[in-house]
Amino acid sequence: MASGTPTQVAPTLGYDAIQDLSRAVPFRPRLSRLIFLRHGETEGNRKGIYQFPDTPLNPAGEAQAAEAASILALASITRVAASPMMRAWRTAAIVTDGRDITPEPDAALQERMYMGLFGTPVGTLNWRVDPPACESLATFVHRTGHALSRWTALEDDPEGDLLIVAHGGVLLVLAALTGVDVHTELRRNATPILFSRTTGGWEATAAG
Asked: What is this structure's pTM?
């Protein structure tokens, strides 16, 4: 990402619970590769608060999304699936600007819904904790896991790759489904990640 621009990292406390729940998701991908992009930074990310669905990118996030678009400029992308939450949808719009591609909204790719906590400080986020009036982890993994399973069940397109633009939590579910270790640098805002399937399983590397 842009030099000097801070980026946030999705927390992984309780990730083992995501891994356990993902085992119940039927995952039979036909794609051999795809690109995943977490949205750019928001003020909610920067301040560490639970975010409303309509939280926009902040100026740093806009710049990060523009840099991601530059990184992906030479990538062959033929289809884009995006969370309709404003921060992800705006990121997808920036990345596809100037391309002959229209992002496809998929509500199942939205971040975990902490309805009862929107606007409050996150503190230490533990994925396995189910706060009152919030989406349970089991429901979150079920809906995002099935969405990711559906998108990865597409056939490879010889013309280019699928790009999924979503959230840090969705990235953790994808990592659990594919069995990859997504290290800290790849989990930062607006960092394009190439997931590729090899004979030994899936790998995740920086795209571009």
From this structure: 0.95
